Amino acid sequence: MPWRMILVIVIILLVGIFAGFNLNQTNISIGFYVFENVPVFLALIISFILGAGMMIPFTLKMKISKKQEEKILKKKAKEEDKAMKTEKNDNIPDVEPVKKNKKKKEKK
Predict the structure, then answer these.
(1) How far is CA 22 from the centre of its chain?
(2) How many other C-beta atoms are found inside a 10 Å radius of the C-beta of residue 1?
(3) Least confident piece of the model among 43-47, 87-91, 102-106
(4) pLDDT for res 35
(5) Which residues contact 52 (CB under 8 A, 6 or more apart)?
(6) Residue 42: which residues within 8 A CB-CB, separation 6 or more?
(7) pTM of the predicted model, to two decimals?
(8) Beta-carbon neighbour count of residue 56 at 10 Å?
């Protein structure tokens, strides 16, 4: 998990808690329960943290899929490189080595 994102969330949480103690209070209804006298800023910060928490699985999924894609691409690149090397070797004609006649110079 990106540490900068965690740091930003913690800082915003601390600022939100401080501000929450200094703002007006309100009632928040979630359908079946009513939270009474909740500071508005605190409600905003809690909503932000819940949203960030819901975003984390999607972020991790994207990173995992990128790593898998990189592995696949590297594997394909290695296979193509191997195929190119094999192709180059196949195109080289078979030539027999030339035998040199070595004549020793006679000393007179």
Answers:
(1) 40
(2) 9
(3) 102-106
(4) 86
(5) 5, 9
(6) 16, 17, 19, 20, 23
(7) 0.45
(8) 13
HEC string of 18-72 equals HHHCCCCEEEEECCCCEEEEEEHHHHHHHHHHHHHHHHHHHHHHHHHHHHHHHHH
Q: Note the maximum CA span of the chain.
A: 122
Residue 80 confidence (pLDDT): 79
**DSSP β-bridge partners for residue 93:** none
Q: Which residues pair with 28 in a beta bridge?
A: 35
Q: Give 92's DSSP letter.
A: S
Does residue 64 or residue 91 have the better pLDDT?
64
Q: What are phi and psi of 18, to 5 degrees?
A: -60, -45
Tracing tokens 């696949």 back to the chain, one arrives at: 72
The C-alpha atoms of residue 54 and residue 61 are separated, in whole angstroms, by: 12
Q: Phi and psi (nearest 5°) for 38?
A: -95, 130
pLDDT at 94 over 80: no
